[in-house]
């Protein structure tokens, strides 16, 4: 190994210590490579130095710098803290927020090398991904999110003052339980604009206050009109049924909710929607960031801006991050998104620059194109985990990771079938199956609101389409349905529909009392 | 790019959420705190610490798929399998996965670390010290100033003259300010001098010296020092807790355990109200001795029973070390109720002497596990019962089971109106 002697003054830092001037130098050096060398396109960066306690704080409120108050965040804080204190788990080196400016948190305990890694990873890798990936462009509003969260926090505090902490807490509990079913999965005609959202709420309230006339309270109520003759189809169409966004439906149509409760559902729904793209792009997002930091760190080292010793420190952390234990390893707990993502990005780079015959056959569009960064930037912008894996997981990588497919049918008493391995017959099946595991549409239970009998007992009817004979978990479902019934104000019935469209199982819940 | 240092931001952003969580879990936390008290030393309890909470009541449910059904898994690291192999399921396991995903952080025994304050708050939720009037006094603190070196600023009345002149002298010497005698001597020389040239030189020298002395003042504002004082908080009232226990042969381990629990509660309770609580352990058989905590609870001892010996020891210790004007005195006595018949009069007499010195005196009569806590006809009980009718700060209870300790304590110290006397 030849050690190149480099002029010392080119080093960004020496040893492990850093100060704010160092951070600035690091950032500028990374920026030069990221924008000039890699052609990335990022939001302006804001780097915040925080303590480990603040990192725990950020952890427990889903990484957001400001969030409304709720007991569950206290619970998560306590939970993380216990693990951290006992040394059972390290804190993340960084948290990065999809906002403009893009905020990256750096822990003060990190060494200078780690700060460089984090800046390259978060402030450039994630930042570029947030700004360019189509899902984030479609579903999140980076400019508006911080203001919106500020509004949400203030709004919920005002609600607590006006309606009492208990009432607000109950509404939030219920909304959180339904959060996973509070997102629009398919793009509609509207784009997300959280600033408008906030303004609209203010206008709504101003309008209500303006229109309020106490006299209306004294107007005698006539007999309710009969709605019996409205046709079933018409009724469902009027309510926008079937609807898979349960929170949205409740916000619009639950008859007994107060206006402020609807607004809270709306807030929780917006937060869920904001995080929805992150759930669908874990592998890609981390893969991008890891690939970017690997590129930047290598180039910094080549240019002599990082010493050999510090570069070795980086390589050690990097190796830990992208470590993928095998299935029979004690440390195995599923795929590591960093490892899988990084491996795929590197594999794509290889296909673009040094393709084999097999690659040319499998990836005629990109094999041998030569411009690895251009191809990767295009992929980062236009795919999510599911489509990314189904298009770009190569036979080469399947062999390298020695992937295999287990088919587990409870009917089959002898055991679990190895239905595909890393060979010619298996590549496609493994790729299809793995991509499916990253499709939330496949992994999350599909539950729709299908009908409500407004003329009769107002019972809400939901259906769960059972796939592969996998029913909902009994205990949790009961609790969630209870929350749902409380918000709806009337009975709720959830049917689990088997493949042969017969009702295999039913869950019901009645409202405890009006959530008030 | 923008760098922000957030480290100095207000800490404990999650504090409010943490409080909400505790409030929501109040019942469970109280239970857990009580449980955790059982195996601790008196002083350890004050450190707060870890408690486990049951997870029901804080579950955050969501729609999830349950077990069962057909499942597919893609796994890395195949070495030996070929397509079509059947891998037997591990016995007992329902899922077909060769190894379950190692989710290390199951939440079933949810651990929560309470701070000392939170711990005591939960524990002493609705208890109140008897004798409120004196307690208020006890909570105020007096501050006495003490000398803490010198400072460069302060009020004129605090000028430290000695230090100031010393510093001025040092500066004058260092800067070479001419001394007065030197100038006088020079003046004399000039007067006496006859040689014109020499005189001019001397006058020039005098001029430079006077200028120098004007430039370098005798006392410069830089020299001035002030005496600095700092205030030391000094509790007006301190508290001492006397733990009296009968360790004669008739006291079983169970009874001692009951007594320990009671002392522990009382100590906790007192230390919540007073900055400093002394504990005096007095154990007695037919003679009394002051011992440390370890010996008190676990040291073996046998002998007859003379309660008066313990009371006499307490009286002597009060006289020697704890002036009632300065100390709030609390007594807690645990006994199985046995006392030598001949000792009755002396005991009663001593108790009547001690009680007026005390804020509060609690007598706990401990019985065997299966005993009846409602009645007691022991000699000591009968004796104390007689004294109880007098307006003295004495209260008494009989306890047989561990589970009764907390309610009894609770009962003795529950919040009362400020006026009501402590005669439960």
UniProtKB/TrEMBL annotation, chain B:
Belongs to the UPF0229 family. Transmembrane segments: none annotated. Residues 83-107 are annotated as: Disordered. InterPro entries: UPF0229. The lineage of its organism: Bacteria, Pseudomonadati, Pseudomonadota, Alphaproteobacteria, Hyphomicrobiales. PANTHER family: UPF0229 PROTEIN YEAH. This is UPF0229 protein NXC12_CH02900. HAMAP family: UPF0229. Residues 97-107 have a biased composition (Basic and acidic residues).
